[in-house]
Amino acid sequence: MAARGGVPSLAASAARRGGVAMSAVRSIYRDDDAAAPPWRTLQYLGLARLVISIGLLLAIAALGANIRGWSTPAYIAGAAVYFAGAAALSAAALYLRRRPMVHVAAQIAFDLVLISALMIASGGLRSGLVVLYLLPLAGASLLLPTVPVFFVCSLAVITILLDTLARTLTAAGAEASLFEAGLYGAMMFAITALLRLLAQRLAAQEQLAQERGRNLHNQLAINRLVIAQLEQGVVVVDADTRVRANNRAARVLIGMKPEAQLTGERLGDFGHLSPLVTAYRRWLAGESGAGARTPSVVELPDLRLRARFVQPAAVDSGEFLIFLEDQRALDERAQQLKLASMGRLTASIAHEIRNPLAAISHASQLLIEDAHDAGLQRLAAIVRENTARLNRLVDDILRVARREAPLGDVIELAAFLAEWLQEFVRDRPQAQGRIALEAPLAAEVKFERSHLRQVLYNLVDNALRYASDAPGAVRLRVANEGGRVALWVLDDGPGVAESARPSLFEPFHTTHAAGTGLGLYIAREFCVANQCQMAYDELRMLDGSSCHGFVVRFGAAPAEQDTAEALDTMIPND
User: Fold this and answer.
1) Which is it for the CA torsion 249, 253, 258, 264, positive or negative?
2) Tens digits of per-residue pLDDT, 323-355?
3) How far is residue 324's CA from residue 319's CA, in Å, rounded to a whole number?
4) CATH homologous superfamily for 229-330?
5) Which CATH number is 410-562's, of 3.30.565.10, 3.40.1440.60, 1.10.1660.10, 3.40.50.300?
6) Can you point out the beta strands (E) in 74-222?
7) Calpha distance 32→489 (Å, rounded)
8) Whole-angstrom Cα distance, residue 50 to residue 55?
């Protein structure tokens, strides 16, 4: 009677102690904090509590009559209440995810009260139900700091000691029972310390994993952003050419719309990508060879791509990377580097030529003053005139290299061509009669005179080199092309081969053994500086025939020329 009479008082004491634990939990979790509490831990504890309560009910049904204390109404009622409370707490942790402090305190207090009541109702320490205290101790170790955890453990130990003391007051063997309860208490403190240590390590590892997960997520987001902004196309494929990932540049380079969906498709299913697929499979077949890392130039219907295939070395996977670049852009970049070097070289050479030209000009002037023969004076005048022309050419090259604006002289084209042709033929007797001028139009164009002279010198010299010796083998023809004046330089030579036309205006490119490869390049640069176009094109005659030659197309009007956009092909000289 004394033992049973102590049950309500001990349960009430445990409830009061649970209230103390509840106040301790209040300092850990804020009521409005819905992200920090470990809801998953609460749900797992609720599930474990529900399983234990079901096991108790099944044990009562199967073994209640054979085990002392399990068939008493108090024990049966306590087991039923424990099951109902476990189900309610599990549902609350699953659906009512608010005020985590209330959930933690309610679960720990419920465990302390109900387990204490079941232990007392079943006969005390010897019933073996003391092992159920491991559930609230484990929950406290996972959810509470160190001090509240040991406070919960002390409540359970105190309950065991008080119950054992109450039972020994009316029975023999008190010393043995108290000693056994003390051992249980020491064991519970040791287990609590171990659980707390494991929980701290688990929490540290979980925090580290979460931090690394966030860092990895951020790094992946940064990588996706960087790859999306790359001008270089990136495609991740497997051995069967199925696309795993790609960026916008890759879709554009292979001829798709920027917003098209390529992930999940096979590159082999696109007919126009068969050269790329062939190069990829060839690389796969010989990736262990010496040329495995050599980029491939892939010819697509409308584009030339530079494809580089790579297998990640850090992971052993079946995914491969394809880097795509526009070969034309690479060629243009190389051309810009070549032009930059050529611009610096030309500007430096032109600057160095000035001093010898000044000496030659001064010597020719002294020769004119001292010579009394008319022939010698004429020869000296030719030297001086050509020296002045070379000096003007040097000045023009330096101005173009520095991107200075041309003078923009307004020229009456027919008169200018007649005057220039007379001067050109005078210095080149071998050209007498071989050049014909066809200028039926009275047209005015805007072009710096010295620049146009040099353009004509280069084009006509080039035409005479390949033309025959027949009269009119080289023709200067002024035509009207839809309101735009065009100056053609035609000859009866074989013309420029089709294979040489793409690199016709590149510096140092020549098909003549004695050529320097700079004449056409400088001529085009002068046209660009004066906002005109120069090309090698086809001219159709009125009789239906056609011929090829170089053409300079002037602006339609001075107002349009002022707003034209020049090509940036030379680098200013510092």
Assistant:
1) negative
2) 888 877 767 777 677 767 766 776 677 667 777
3) 16
4) PAS domain (3.30.450.20)
5) 3.30.565.10
6) none
7) 86
8) 9
